[in-house]
Write a structure and sequence with these properties.
It is a single chain. The protein is α+β, with helices and mostly antiparallel strands. It contains nine helices and nine strands. The chain has a five-stranded antiparallel beta sheet with strand order 1-7-4-3-2, with helices on both faces. β3 and β4 form a beta hairpin. The protein is elongated and about 95 Å long. The N and C termini lie far apart (about 65 Å).
Length: about 290
């Protein structure tokens, strides 16, 4: 939204207008990657250890008529390269099998084949004459590019992209883990109320994700219980049980794992114990009033 007024907007209101992930098979991006290939991969000073990714940033226009130069952050990941390489090899194997069986015959070949093969097809009857594999496709495995309009480090750009990507996936996940694929309500008011509650739940879940993620950065290793679902399952084990004398107490002490999770939310075992005592007294009071 444009800023209305004579003066420029405050710095805190100037926001990043876009963060774009571009595919390596785009012609301009492919050319950019090939031009810089071999200049930063597997060199420690270019390594983003957090994401096991190497990076390089260059400045150029996004398109010919672009008024400003943008920042292109090129990344390479060995893990990503292995996965993509295997996926492409499997796809090429399937395509090769089809092309070999159709050689010398009239066959329908989609545009997807042209991405991986240089095809020679007879113009008159559409007969496949020859199909040569494109080697450059494999050369781009493991590479991806993020474009930003303002200057920032490659690590900051990747962090920003991943945070936005997680948010988008989380709101898409509203249809799955919050049961919003079908509302199962009979009125607009009920539907609005359910959507509002789910939206609040998504905000809470997002906050939990951020806090757990920040806490993981402080740990020497990444434990498997520091995800939102795993953390909730672990904290659900903290419960009160009713004793024979009618009083309530914690079923067991807070475990070491639960203490680490609670620390992410700026809580500790003493606070849990105090809450448990307070709830116990409240339950005892209600029990006395009910007699």
């Amino acid at each position: 939204m444009p800023w209305k007024g004579k003066h420029k907007p405050p710095a805190e209101l100037v926001v990043l207008t876009f963060v774009i992930m571009v595919k390596g098979m785009s012609e301009s991006v492919r050319r950019m990657i090939l031009e810089n290939k071999g200049e930063f991969e597997n060199i420690r000073k270019y390594n983003i250890r957090k994401y096991k990714t190497f990076r390089k940033t260059i400045k150029k226009k996004l398109y010919i008529s672009d008024e400003k130069e943008r920042y292109f952050h090129i990344y390479y990941s060995d893990q990503k390269a292995c996965v993509e390489h295997e996926q492409i090899e499997a796809k090429i194997d399937r395509m090769t099998k089809y092309l070999n069986s159709s050689k010398g015959e009239k066959a329908t070949v989609g545009d997807g084949y042209k991405k991986y093969f240089k095809l020679e097809i007879h113009e008159d009857d559409g007969t496949i004459i020859c199909a040569r594999e494109r080697i450059e496709v494999i050369d781009l495995c493991g590479y991806f590019v993020i474009v930003t309009p303002k200057q920032m480090t490659a690590e900051e750009a990747l962090e920003l992209y991943k945070s936005r990507d997680v948010s988008e996936k989380m709101f898409r996940g509203d249809k799955s883990y919050l049961g919003n694929r079908s509302l199962r309500v009979q009125s607009d008011e009920t539907a609005s109320a359910k959507i509002f509650v789910e939206f609040v739940a998504l905000i809470v879940r997002s906050r939990m994700y951020v806090l757990l993620k920040d806490e993981v950065k402080k740990l020497d290793k990444k434990p498997n219980y520091m995800t939102v679902p795993a953390a909730i399952r672990e904290l659900e084990k903290i419960e009160l049980v009713r004793q024979t004398d009618g009083k309530y107490c914690m079923d067991h002490a807070v475990t070491a794992t639960q203490k680490i999770i609670l620390k992410a939310f700026d809580m500790d075992a003493d606070q849990i114990q105090d809450k448990a005592v307070g709830l116990s007294r409240l339950l005892e009071k209600y029990a006395e009033e009910g007699k």
